[in-house]
Amino acid sequence: MGSLDSNPASFDAFAADAEGFQPLNADDVRSYLHKSVDFIYDYYKSVESLPVLPGVEPGYLSRLLQSAPPSAAAPFDIAMKEIRDAVVPGMTHWASPNFFAFFPATNSAAAIAGELIASAMNTVGFTWQANPAATEMEVLALDWLAQLLRLPESFMMNRTTAGARGTGGGVILGTTSEAMLVTLVAARDAALHRMGSNGVAGITRLTVYAADQTHSTFFKACRLAGFDPANIRSIPTSADTNYGLDPTRLLEVMQADVDAGLVPTYICATVGTTSSNAVDPVGAVADAAAPFGAWVHVDAAYAGSACICPEFRHHLDGVERVDSISMSPHKWLMTCLDCTCLWVRDAHLLTDSLETNPEYLKNDVTDSGAVTDLKDMQVGVGRRFRGLKLWMVMRTYGATKLQEHIRIDVAMAKMFEECVRADDRFEVVVPRNFALVCFRIKPHDGMIEEAANRELMERLNRTGKAYLAHTVIGGKFVLRFAVGSSLQEERHVRSAWDLIRKKTTEIMSGEM
């Protein structure tokens, strides 16, 4: 059966071999990590020259690597060779400075070091007692970042003017989807409690709201949280509000639901939507929600990082009146995946819905109420030491360097936007926010514009010299140019623009 032994060795032989197996032999750890670090160094030095989008077909990897698990040990160098020969050629290189698709997945030397150390320690910090340093580092990192964002003290766990512990709190999760899910569950339970509902009997009356530009994971999270799909309101947006949520329209929809006997429960406001980087007016949305007691969550996954800069902080104005906010440093704040920060104004609403208290996790510190066990602010129980890499990034670079990083990316995006506007073959579809430019080829001489723009994107991506993604805004097929890869410099943006112009000329002249 493949490479597995059909006649296993005797028990005695197996036991003798097992005694010699030392997976954490200190010399091996040093040797393997040194070789891995050399691989990472070589990768970052060469990634600019690699095709951003690989030219492989589905199933390619199984044809290059053996299909059955090996029965015998092999030198570590064999695995490293297979990574170089088989894995790297099949990678979409998000680290490439020629990556302009989706949103960036930023990284840094400090984050990599923090991730490495956390992985080596391999702690499972579900309770404070299970790892005090991991819990307290996460709280500290979240409080630091909250201060950089100038969030109100009501969201912080340990930082209050009086020096006492606040009612708010935070947790680092894997993704924005998780942040949405746990806050939806908390909002659901709070609404049911206010209604005096017996269990979840009243859940069919609960309604949730978001703009049609809100990330699709919101609607998925709503279903996972048990909301009736018929009660999930996707509110249309338009160019009149730059595709942001219209609070007047939101208020009308919520009032109509109340008149129909429904209960407005949760609103998701986005700061930096995926399609166009639209910004929902946080304060106005909170004002609209207030008469109904609806939970307001702010999804600032991408653009929240920019709000550490004073010139962008106004996008969070009104945040003191919302119930929760999340942002993802793994997108634009130099902290590798996965790292989504969630803050809530009343941590008890979250823990009341998510707390688990099995006998084997009970301990005096938890029982004292002096700590919040982070397992009770997430879906699962087990959790990684995510706080270390975020702390490492802030401790190593400081606010000044992080702000500089954001500003350089925004300046490069502004330069690209100016190039697009200066070429009359193109148009910028929505005003640029932050470091994303949404553009397209304008209609020319009966040209089918969607076909032309789709062809442009495909030709660009086939070159391997740039990678762009698309969206649809106002019924138009649009190319998204997202600046922000950690290795990106102005020359990469200019080179991409030159390539865009060249491929557009080929399309318009009918070249294949």
TrEMBL record:
Cross-referenced PANTHER family: GROUP II PYRIDOXAL-5-PHOSPHATE DECARBOXYLASE, TYROSINE DECARBOXYLASE 1
Any one GO BP annotation for this protein: primary amino compound biosynthetic process
Family recorded in the similarity comment: Belongs to the group II decarboxylase family.
Keywords: Decarboxylase, Lyase, Pyridoxal phosphate
Signal peptide (UniProt feature, chain positions): none
Record GO terms (molecular function): carboxy-lyase activity
Name of the protein this chain belongs to: Aromatic-L-amino-acid decarboxylase
Keyword Nucleotide-binding: no
Modified residues (N6-(pyridoxal phosphate)lysine): 331
Pfam families tied to this protein: Pyridoxal_deC (PF00282)
InterPro entries: Aromatic_deC (IPR010977), PyrdxlP-dep_de-COase (IPR002129), PyrdxlP-dep_Trfase (IPR015424), PyrdxlP-dep_Trfase_major (IPR015421), PyrdxlP-dep_Trfase_small (IPR015422), Pyridoxal-P_BS (IPR021115)
Highest taxon in the source lineage: Eukaryota
Swiss-Prot/TrEMBL cofactor(s): pyridoxal 5'-phosphate
Coiled-coil features, chain-numbered ranges: none
